[in-house]
Amino acid sequence: MSTRHVPLHVVVLEWLMVSRRSLLVLAGLSAGAVTLPSVPARAAGQVIDLPAPTSRRPVGTIDLHLVDHDRDDPLAPDRRARELMVQLWYPALTTAGCRRAPYTTSRVASALEAGLPLKAGTLGAVRPHARTGAPAVPGPLPLVLLGHGRKGGRSNCTALAEELASYGYLVAGIDHTYDAAVVEFPDGRAVHSVLPEESDDWDRQERLEIETRVGDLRFVATTLTRRRRSPCADPGRIGVVGHSMGGAAAAELLRVDDRFAVGVNLDGALFGSPVADLGLDRPYLLLTALEDHETWGRWREHQRGWGRQLRARDTGHLTYTDLPHFAVPGGLAESWPADLYAELLGTLDPARSTELIRTYTRLCLDQFLKGRPAPLLNSPSPRYPEVDFRWTRG
Length: 394
Known about the structure:
The protein is an alpha/beta fold. Helix content is 27%, strand content 22%. The strands form 3 sheets. A 10-stranded mixed sheet has the order 5-2-3-7-6-10-11-12-13-14, with helices on both faces. It has a two-stranded parallel ribbon with strand order 1-4. It has a two-stranded antiparallel ribbon with strand order 8-9. A hairpin with a 5-residue loop joins strand 8 (182-184) and strand 9 (190-192). The longest helix has 25 residues, at 202-226.
């Protein structure tokens, strides 16, 4: 099957949808029996806890409304300055007296639940661990920018963000406006995605989307490194992590901006930029669900800096988000065909898959932003037998 074609049943994915190329090929879905991950079923409205950070350090979070007055929005239907919503997660001094942060706003939650679909109230039942407005530890902190997949949103990888923050990182999750499924601004405006499901020229469309994302990431990094109050970022220690198209944008960001020391790609094909054919001169970790993709093969041939491609067996493309933790209680396993569900969300227990993703992502960032060598990144480990080392360099 061409990487430009996706089976029609994938149209049901309105949230966390990726482009026809970056979805990575969903051909060959089995019609046989599928074992779904073991997740306790809960009625919508009951508490669904995300995995707690493995560090004991408390985590705070705040939202920022940022406007880039130096850049016209390339995706807006009219001429206007580029406008973003950004969520920060950071290590907190204390969380006493601070309320638990919601997973997302009720307005965004309703739109996402209708699109997937999930039972009404599912996302309202999801409980992160960060506390809103908790005082941050003194900075500056190493900064990690976190990008969502095509038509995703800044909350999609909250469990990963909280984990990194608990280990001392300032994590900035960005809603890429007019790309993200829904972005709600402080004045009540809700901006929906305008990205097409069909295009006469996918190369041009993906270049536009990656260029827009890279502009967003660079602007946010500049804003946070100039920020004078806590939490603030260390301009000499910046990394980027992205899921799906966010991972492709992370690669292009490393190519064009020397401020970024390391990138992590969570199952994203390298479309929309020349990185696959040029490689990178800085560290780049690729964590994948599939064994291989043609853009990854080209990247391996040209990568000049430290590089790894690790495949986590029994994962799916959406395993690298929070979705597996509330898909079953939200009724998604009943709404989607079993083979499609297993293909996209994997069959690995969600707690285990989150452990793998958190561990390898954090150790990569620790090695290149904190100078802490991570032997686990050099060879297979009996602690994580699900992880195959597909390729290493450096």
